[in-house]
Task: structure prediction
Amino acid sequence: MQFDGAAVGRVIRRIRRRRGLSQEVVSGLAGIARTHLTMIENGSKQANLETVWKIALALDMQPSELIRQVEEEIQSTGQNETGVVPY
Result:
């Protein structure tokens, strides 16, 4: 499975919206700028591990659970183990 930074943002956005939280609230709890969270969510910026960790805690979840959901998101987009999207 190949890393997909955009999947991280899609998962974070989906969880945040399901919980009814604004970007302002999550970014404030995570201690990052709202614009930084926006860029992560739209895939224009990749979050490092520390930022993913802070966002997970701000979403009241274990970082490992957030990563698990990102893995599922990547798998659901149809990528195989080589990272190539099959036709």
Residues 37 and 46 are 10 Å apart (CA to CA).
